[in-house]
Amino acid sequence: MFEGVGTALATPFNEDYSIDYAAYKKLIQRQIDAGIDYLIVLGTTGESPVIDEYEREKLIETAQETAYGKTKIIVGTGSNDTSKVVKLNAIAEKYKTDAVLVVNPYYNKGTQGSLVQHYQYISERTSLPVILYNVPSRTGMNLLPETAVQINETCKNVVAIKEASGNISQIAQLFAIKQPSFEVVSGNDDQTIPIMALGGVGVISVYSNAFPKELKEITTAMQKNDLRKAQTLNQKYLQMMNLLFVETSPSPLKFVLSRQGICKNILRMPLAPVSEKTENLLLKELENYEKY
User: Would you list the domain boundaries of the chain?
Assistant: First the structure.
């Protein structure tokens, strides 16, 4: 269901920090034109913590209107308030999206057992497929392989996990113990190849906002078992993948998108545009892309 590339969409803003829906449509259309397999609305890359409920509905509606019948739409609904996740899932259901992406609860850290209860409660209250999202660097809590498998086996609509722990050994253990139907998607662009080599089905990407065709080339090569081509492409694009995280994402991405004419280099606080040093690094790497 989640094979290939899913782009975790950035949310464009105007100078007054209102949402730039025209730029949002432009970004979405670019993904469709590049053959991206699905889109994630209101993930971390979309600055979801600073989007209010009215804007959330408008973004989902805009994505559905722009991409309906062309690609799948997944909505990020994670929160550290379990009841809020249920409420946000209901909004996603209202707009008939294809799935929800639910990040581990952050800040008010629980236990592995409490994670199971959290996801079971959510699962029982939505008709949509649920993708777990493990990103300890953001949440301060790691979803262990055994816990992910328990959630999958006790929640019939938990169908996949976005794995962004960065720990390949942990991810390998997950593949060793999970059911084949429980899909694993890379949550880190630079780990697309190793996770797909282990049995992953693709990647949910930041990089593909700016370079959708390039990342699609890598996943397609892996799907065709052309490891040599995937390696060559990965080595070619890896520097930019890494630079997009040299400061807190999506700040570097917003700068790149602004240089590409997709949206303005504006973020809502507490995030801010990247430093001049990072701008120069990104500009230098963008020059390399012009030579490809």
Answer: 4-226
